[in-house]
Amino acid sequence: MPSIFLDRDGVINKKIDGGYVTTWKEFEWLPGSIDAIKLLSDQGWGIYVATNQACVGKGILKQDDLEYIHTLMIRELAKNGAKIKKVYFCPHTIETRCRCRKPNPGMLFTAAEENGLSLSNSYFIGDSITDMQAANAAGMYGILINDAEQMLNRKCYHKARNLMEAANYILKRAGSC
Ligand SMILES: [Mg+2]
After folding, report:
1. In degrees, to the nearest 5, what angle opens at C-alpha 74 toward C-alphas 79 and 21?
2. Catalytic position from the list 9, 65, 127, 147
3. CA neighbor of 135 nearest in space, from 127, 126, 124, 145
4. What is the distance between the alpha carbons of residues 21 and 132, in angstroms, rounded to a whole number?
5. How far apart are CA 172 and CA 177, in angstroms?
6. Distance from the CA of 80 to the center of ligand 1, in angstroms?
7. pLDDT, tens digit only, all 177 positions of the chain
8. How many whole angstroms from 87 Cα to the centroid of ligand 1?
């Protein structure tokens, strides 16, 4: 199954500088992100989210409340004809040294196992270098959405300005194979 993994904050919704999305009210869609997810799901791609949410481990947000935000996110997408199959999240803090917190690829391996995915044919779209490191460790094709110049010297991934641009790139690339 071809699949696409998305980071959440900074890819689907607006990142909160130095903080976390702790309520649905604070969840602000990035322009075009719903349409991009719809475009990809319409084309038959299985779409998953893999997000670090250390706010749970830090006691800032209860896991149930995080999952509720994701339920509302998936519901809102579905209303617009866009489908996300499952949201994987790492609730741990960096000190936990878990296998799931990106840049570690644990969430991606778990998703592959649970859904029978071939990661080498899959994409990861993220806005952090740690997303690209996780993609790389899982043998996936990384697409970085970020304008930070210091990230330009890394060649292990493609760059796009936003999720829609990344989606169009994937469709073009897949179509030409
Ligand atoms: Mg992010």
Report:
1. 125
2. 9
3. 124
4. 22
5. 9
6. 23
7. 679 999 999 999 999 988 999 999 999 999 999 999 999 999 999 999 999 999 999 999 999 999 999 999 999 999 999 999 999 999 999 999 999 999 999 999 999 999 999 999 999 999 998 999 999 999 999 999 976 655 555 555 788 999 999 999 999 988 754
8. 14
User: Would you tell me how many other CB atoms lie within 10 Å of the CB of residue 166?
Assistant: 24
pTM equals 0.94
Rounded to the nearest angstrom, the distance between the alpha carbon of 151 and the centre of ligand 1 is 14
Whole-angstrom CA distances from 150 to 77, 133, 162 are: 33, 15, 18
Domain edges within the chain: 3-175
**Active-site residue 7, yes or no?**
yes
The type of residue at 123 is: Y
Distance between CA atoms of residues 38 and 83, nearest Å: 7
Q: Please state which CATH number belongs to domain 3-175.
A: 3.40.50.1000
Judge contact between 145 and 126, C-beta under 8 A: yes
Q: Provide the β-strand partners of residue 46.
A: 3
* 131 labelled catalytic: no
